[in-house]
Amino acid sequence: MIYLDNAATTSLDRDVLAAMEPYFTQIYGNSQSQHSFGRQAAKAVQSVRDSIAARNVCSPEEIYFVSGGTEGDNLAIKGLCHAYGRGHIIISGIEHSALYDSALQLKSEGYELSVIPPAPEGIISPDAVREAIRPDTIFCGVMYANNETGIIQPVQDIYSVCRSKGVFFYTDCVQAAPYMPLSSSLADGLVFSAHKLYGPKGIAALYIRGGTKVKPVITGGMQERTLRGGTLNVPGIVGLGAAYEKCVSTQETVNPYIRSMRDTFLKRVLAEIPGSRLNGSGPMLPSHANISFDGCAGENIVFSLDLKGIAVSTGAACSAGAVTPTRVISSMLGLPRAKSAVRFSFGRNNTPEEIPQVLDALKECVSRIRSV
Question: For 289, which DSSP code?
């Protein structure tokens, strides 16, 4: 089996699993409990919080543990908007459904919403954000790197625009975190998730700048300084910390390795398969290659490759089973390109030897689908 869907999720790193194991069977106390079992768990949680804060140049009190990027997006936009009670929201048209659909829900509640479309290359313009800001704008969300195309957004420039206007700026860093350094200088709020970092599913870190008015979305306890109720996932938090540290510390060597495989694969596909076109251009994560194949339905290529033991996708995993083409590619390049789009995403467990195998299988699948 060849796995080229690392943008959807990554395998659990053995070192990360080893770090987590004691917190399932030995240090298993509730981190809110006052006895020694609880204090040991709480100490582990605080250690990870401190480590993430140091990496992101912020205070540990500005880091919150949530169940994933989806909850982080929901808490950031809904929590802030509900704290204000009303106002104007700006998001980009390439946002993950967790933020995009949350914004639509808030619109149904009476908030006003502006959605900024991407340029054909997949970039959100800081000037477009500046033009969209109004006196009543309270929130702007633009992701750091898109989950489908891997295109890196100019979030630093967008943050400067928002900061000059007093608008809270949020960036979803779930896709960027494995490859890009994160920092509080990027935004007033950001989130990254462990399972994209070779860590466990079901845990993420959310940064919210101190002093920001935010209402909880999940209530029922005093955890996370009352912002997020629920017993803390201590093994998951430990895994998040271990995965993040390993990922950040190895980026300088891992990124070129992944980029080399991706670039070799992309160059050969575009040269050897007629009617294949890369979706998006400009700064891009080292892992992603979103390619459209004229005359093919993307899902047919996905199914055909799966039968040959190769895992790829048509877009975001959260949209699997959807009958409509990807919203992101549609907004960039139109419906025909979106219908024929396939996402290949490389990771550190892939090898250069896999590339010819994938290419041969892809050629056969595309040829057969086109002939039908």
Answer: E
pLDDT for res 91: 98
Q: How far is CA 339 from the centre of its chain?
A: 22
For residues 14 and 81, give the distance between their C-alpha atoms in angstroms, rounded to a whole number. 40
The candidate with the shortest Cα–Cα distance to 317, out of 3, 1, 5, 32, is 5
Q: What is the pLDDT of residue 167?
A: 98
Non-local CB neighbours of 192 within 8 Å, separated by 6+ positions: 69, 173, 174, 176, 177, 182, 204, 205, 244
Q: Given phi > 0 = left and psi -120 to 50 = alpha, else beta, which region is 200?
A: beta
Give the pLDDT confidence score for residue 222 in this predicted structure.
87
How many Å apart are CA 32 and CA 43, to the nearest integer? 11
**CA-to-CA distance for 171 and 205, rounded, in angstroms?**
13
CB-hemisphere CA count at 13 Å for 116? Answer: 24
Q: How far is CA 348 from CA 3, 21, 342, 361, in A?
A: 11, 23, 20, 21
The whole-number pLDDT of residue 221 equals: 86
pLDDT score, position 325: 81
The answer to whether the predicted template modeling score (pTM) of the entire model surpasses 0.90 is: yes
Percent of the chain with pLDDT over 70: 98
Regions of the chain where pLDDT drops below 70: 316-324
Query: Which of 162, 173, 318, 365 does the annotation list as catalytic?
Result: 318
pLDDT of residue 372: 87
User: Does 318 participate in catalysis according to the annotation?
Assistant: yes
C-alpha dist (Å) from residue 347 to 197, 262, 305, 310: 10, 9, 18, 14
C-alpha distances in angstroms, 327 versus 79, 85, 331, 364? 25, 29, 6, 28
